[in-house]
């Protein structure tokens, strides 16, 4: 693709070494202006230093946005209404942040008259797909520049040499450099690379950053009450909180109780298996509690339909199709299902365990003690109905049996 | 239905009060002979006392079967190949035992010339459905007698009075009587009724029988290595074990480490919600470990297809359709998928947590370190391929965007 | 069930012999008052005679409703948005009328203070289920009386004798009585029974009532243009029509061209297979045309998701779950998908064939001639992108192949 | 990609202009030897002329294979067991031939020591994907050359100029050249391009090659009896035929009766919509007849599960994943389901219509006239069972209704 006609690029800029090198490389390679965009998604690091760095590198248009509420409210919460888990384990912490970054990058490109966007994701991962599918959906003719797929700075050494040559400061992170590739936001922190590239190797305890180990968690359990409205948590222990505050609070509670660590091999969209470790303290609590409030308030067949569609919904988010009509279509169905999902769930947090200690819903409980009871139900349920129910459900099996269908 | 023409009934007989009353009631009501069938499914109670009781009540044909290996090998293991969970939580411990009992009951009816079977399940639950669908599928013209749907002994008092009147011994279980309705087998033990009928009430610690609480579990983790062949565990820590021995061993390890407790509200097939508590120590370990070995050895799309069909497969087992052609059809597909599921999973057990500490497969690992690596891959993967991959996946979104489909 | 406490029954009353006998039988058996409800659903027979009959039998509250527009607009049209077909063939003509009758029956019961409803469906069919599930969903404590499941008038002879004894006029339909059990409404007419009970027997030509045979249809094709808005036909050949008028017009056009006959064996919800013949002239045209307009305006993945969920949606309607939360949830998703389904389809009708002769959509076509063309596309599509697309889609297959997965 | 190291290429060679140019271009561009492979898949043209042409162009290793039986038996027949249709309309005639060509191409590459394969599919279509996914799955390290994605002969003129320059004979097809891009095999013939690029334009009558128009078909219907064994047609009108002979015979019968024309807009895997016309005379009959024999012999839930999975199975074939583990997994399930699909279907062919005139199965019919009958069934079915069946199926709806869930 010709590099001739790029005038201005909106770059997803973290302030770190890699994206600083990209910034310079874009200017050099494309002779273009660069607009930087740095988002606070709750990753737990200051974003303001990115402004100073961008300024030092001569950037004129610098965007620093606090997107935590939007992230929690419009991305994380809708996803949890679906009980989304990828491949039975992964809570999609990285995946769900990408569409928001893509959207903001396009908005900034539109505002600043940029004709391209750029990002620092590699050509092997899912993130490039998530960024770019989002960008193309939101602005079909946008030019996308993915330096890792283009340049020849393919080793750590060449990258550092480039930085040195161009006067880009190579700060070491506090303490010793992590051997892992990490990504964090309000929902989770992830680790890849290093010894994790051997799926038989157990990660060392000091890799984990957001949670104490179950071993080091308190010896006393913590009980928490979560109030749900239309499928979303709106209060913790009776205190109303914004979505971002809910996530922050649950991360704190979960992390302190050793909750939310995960170590998996997953299937990337680009076709390879990769090993990843994740800490999702708040999300782990949210999934368990959401299922509990749904168990009380959701119709059986609605719940089962949601369960059958969930893997596909989760895959759509994992593979970067948040901004697709099929994800939206599923979301409309999921959101509609949540109207009766109101009530309170009491969870017990203890050394890595989240257990449900109670669930109630004044307005929407479908649990009918009079019918379910083992005691005399005074006619609420006629046990004789069961005979006809079974007989007709068995009819096709009986007809087949008589015709000789054999099982034993 | 006329009671005139029943000559001999094969009864699922536990030896307890309820089924002893049923035994007598059948003889009285139907003027028929009763054959008793008592199975050792690993419930942890002796089955021989049932023989003595049946003899004392004058039964001539008494079947006492040790079905533990058949149960583990032909029912539990195939189900775990599917990663089956009902409604996101329940490991189907009761559900999976019923089709075996139904099958054996029909076999015994066939052997003894019985023209009917009887069971002690109530008219409100799932078990009646599971027993009867199985029976009808395996012998379409069998007569089924479900005393709880027929008689007027609907309260504890009337039942006890009937027992006393007919000289049926009312032994109390060891210690004080449990306030819960329980069911146990090699896979799990369940609790219903009593204070559990209030979904807001947390069960008391002394309800649980198979596991210590996480609080009381050892302060040191236990590591275990599980060897898989074609999706089944065949060895623990290198020692080859039969399926039943695998389950027993994992129950012991899981129970000692506080693993496998569950407290849920579930949707019964007969249309009501009910509260149940379950202990499934070994099964909880098996599910986690099976997903881990699959994550390494199963193709992505095969795994996703399994995940999408799993809820339906689990529902089929929950609702009693084990002996149906659609369950068999799904099973054939699931079993076929397991050919490459070979290798070893190392799990860490600690105070209620099961975590995967490693997974490997010499013969079938699809994890390719050369491709996945963050380091230089020497051309194993061409990052430039990603551009075309993304571009064509985005094409439909771009066309729609140009035509004005709007998201923001 | 005790018959003591029924005071007033709302009866779905056709005015024919069967429901007239039911009317009398209800009064006699339950000592209750009967309210009759007769609906014009487009069955093609006058409904006013039912009023005279009901009056003659002494009924005081008589409801005669023209429900054709409501039926077409709120039931038939939403169903066709889903491209619903049961078991690959059946357009659900009977199924979709039942929930409307159930709803109106409950409304009338509510208005007249009736404590029960009654219908003339037998205990072997699907219609009893559809009526009653609807009634229970809309008024949970309604009493339902299904005489065919209760009485002993199980043969034609006993029924006629009862009618004679109670002075119920036994009018013969015009011409000789049909040997078939029939049901008709604006969407279709159905035939069951008689020689159809042999699945090897071909129905005689004179059974069919709504369409000429393809053999007798005109030798010249008829072309029609159908205008769609949000998935619904709003105009035919440029003339705006109401939903009921659309159906009526397409029935006329289809019937005249020998379109819409169907002869199948289907699986009833109550567990048996049954043979049915159907004429659905307008519906057959609608299905073909709706797929055509969707093919131009719907995103690929949205269309595929709809296709995968369609069989379940169709089953829900077939089995009587229109008034269920899961059907509503699916409907919300389907309706949302139809926003871009606008445009015109030109169909050719000829001797039983419906073929699409053209489709266009000014506002929403996603067909991009510049990209799809076999001619030079001037860079609209970069063919080189396909290489990366294929390479990454093949990656998992290649890795597996290298590990020895074998196909040939 | 460097062109340096290709020594021998196995080329899918039709003998036509395009692949002859490719043959020469490969030799020139890669300095490699070319092996040609020409298959008789029933496209209706002689394959021997391709041998002469290849010889004339100096090819030393020439493969001419009659694959008609393998194609019908191992590809078309298995696909029809699934009732596969893509996007509600397309019978996958082109899609299903590609995996066989890919397989044979790899076999020939293996036999001749070729290190690459080449094909003549463009970079815009599905066929490149189907060829290449198959090739990579069957020989992961194969080099694939797709000249249309590489060269600069992008217009008809440059192609002809190249041919002339290299002495490649430019024979005109018999009669005037077709304005359409066509593909044919035993299952179908397809048309794309030309005026079809306008979805509003109706194709001209003289485009169609395999069938008479319904207008020109005989005025008398043709009846045919198809005998099924395990889901496959094994005899027509009592005469046992091989799979290829079955297809050929049904094509002849269907084509003569104006059956199997289709005109659609479809969604390609590479992201665009395209217009295509198809003639599939035999396949259209097979789909209708297969559903009919299944309707009699397949369990309801098995049939429904097949219907729900069918769209995904069809997509897998359409997008080129025949040689994938997920297609194989689905196929195992589908094939297993066909064990009872035995019997005879009688179809009526008349001016474009295929209708079922009868179906029977001595060994496997699940249609039970005694139960289904409208006449007195002498107790085969107890209508009272329906009450309990409905009551329990309604229970969740009633509970929800009492809690205030509202529909009207």
From TrEMBL, chains A, B, C, D:
Domain Arginosuccinate synthase-like N-terminal: 8-169
Main location: cytoplasm
Keyword entries, A-Z: Amino-acid biosynthesis, Arginine biosynthesis, ATP-binding, Cytoplasm, Ligase, Nucleotide-binding
This protein's name: Argininosuccinate synthase
GO process annotations (BP): argininosuccinate metabolic process; L-arginine biosynthetic process; urea cycle
Subunit structure of this chain's protein: Homotetramer.
Main enzyme class: ligase
InterPro entries tied to this protein: Arginosuc_syn_C, Arginosuc_syn_N, Arginosuc_synth, Arginosuc_synth_CS, Arginosuc_synth_type_1_subfam, AS_cat/multimer_dom_body, Rossmann-like_a/b/a_fold
Positions with a binding annotation for L-aspartate: 122, 126-127
Natural source organism: Methylococcus geothermalis
Lineage summary: Bacteria, Pseudomonadati, Pseudomonadota, Gammaproteobacteria, Methylococcales
GO CC annotation terms, alphabetical: cytoplasm
Gene: argG
Record: residues binding L-citrulline: 90, 95, 126, 130, 181, 190, 266, 278
């Amino acid at each position: 693709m010709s590099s001739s006609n790029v005038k201005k690029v909106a770059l997803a800029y973290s302030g770190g070494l890699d994206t600083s090198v990209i910034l310079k490389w874009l200017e050099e390679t494309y002779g273009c202006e660069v607009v930087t965009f740095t988002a606070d998604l709750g990753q737990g690091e200051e974003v303001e230093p990115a402004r100073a760095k961008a300024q030092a590198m001569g950037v004129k248009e610098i965007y620093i946005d606090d997107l935590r509420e939007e992230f929690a409210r419009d991305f994380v919460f809708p996803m949890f209404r679906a009980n989304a888990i990828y491949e039975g384990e992964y809570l999609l912490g990285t995946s769900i942040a990408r569409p928001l970054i893509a959207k903001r990058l396009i908005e900034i490109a539109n505002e600043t008259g940029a004709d391209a966007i750029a990002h620092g994701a590699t050509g092997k991962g899912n993130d490039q797909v998530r960024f770019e599918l989002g960008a193309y959906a939101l602005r079909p003719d946008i030019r996308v520049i993915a330096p890792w797929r283009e340049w020849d700075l393919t080793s750590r050494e060449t990258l550092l040499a480039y930085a040195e040559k161009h006067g880009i400061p190579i700060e070491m992170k506090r303490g010793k450099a992590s051997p892992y590739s990490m990504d964090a936001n309000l929902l989770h922190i992830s680790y890849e690379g290093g010894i994790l590239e051997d799926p038989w190797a157990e990660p060392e305890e000091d890799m984990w950053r957001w949670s104490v180990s179950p071993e080091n968690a308190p010896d006393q359990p913590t009980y928490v009450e979560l109030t749900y409205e239309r499928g979303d948590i709106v209060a913790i222990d009776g205190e109303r909180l914004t979505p971002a505050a809910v996530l922050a609070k649950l991360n704190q509670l979960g992390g302190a109780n050793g909750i939310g660590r995960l170590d998996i091999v997953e299937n990337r969209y680009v076709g390879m298996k990769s090993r990843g470790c994740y800490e999702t303290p708040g999300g782990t609590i949210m999934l368990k509690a959401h299922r509990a409030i749904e168990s009380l308030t959701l119709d059986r067949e609605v719940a089962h339909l949601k369960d059958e569609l969930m893997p596909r919904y989760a895959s759509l988010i994992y593979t970067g199709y948040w901004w697709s009509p099929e994800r939206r279509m599923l979301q409309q169905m999921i959101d509609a299902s949540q109207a009766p999902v109101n009530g309170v769930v009491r969870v017990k947090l203890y050394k890595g365990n989240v257990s449900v200690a109670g669930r109630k819903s004044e307005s929407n409980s479908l649990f009918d003690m009079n019918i379910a009871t083992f005691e005399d139900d005074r006619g609420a349920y006629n046990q004789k109905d069961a005979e006809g129910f079974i007989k007709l459900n068995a009819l096709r099996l009986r007809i087949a049996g008589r015709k000789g269908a054999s099982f034993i």
